[in-house]
Amino acid sequence: MPKNSVPNLKKSLRLYVIPDRGAGAPLSLEEQARLAIEGGATAIQLRDKEADGGELLRTARALSALCRERRVLFIVNDRLDVALLSGADGVHLGQSDLPVTDARRLAPRPFLVGASAHTPSEALEAERDGADYIGVGAVFGTGSKSDAAVIGLERLRETAAASRLPSVAIGGVTTENLPRVILCGVDGVSVIAAAVRGDVKGNTRELAKMLL
Questions:
Q1: What are the extents of the domains in the chain?
Q2: What pTM did the predictor assign?
Q3: Is 11 one of the annotated active-site residues of the chain?
């Protein structure tokens, strides 16, 4: 995707895949991303808590180039500096990260700022502060974030409906529960293990078919 060109953000957020060192081993994050895109991923997020700043930036630049070539949205988790230096389309910020208002001040549109929201009030705050989309969850328990508070499907529905922003369900989404998740009114789903554990391309293709 050309840098910062998002003609249809909701469509670009439909299948949001996060490569993972553990769940996707032994494949590299870049290889996981490539296979996920081949399977139908519409967005890739770089989230790597183990990498130092230099390694994270190198990976971000590689993923940015890959996603630009394949016309897929590329988002960096937490690190606005790495997102900007790598030419990413945007950054995703959690509740304990840099405030959305400050990120927006440093990176005006069309650069994207996504924000995590666990409640309707947080969704409204993200919209007021200038976020472009919200990630809502954790919907179910997840191995990638053991301390994440599980909000369930009803809270997912309420939070997604609270603002006008596009919404992505995050946390524990699988092929088994995906139909119930989509019925909550979200525009897309964010997946880690469901996409990258085992047959990345095949897993992602199955998820993509379910989201048609």
A1: 9-210
A2: 0.94
A3: no
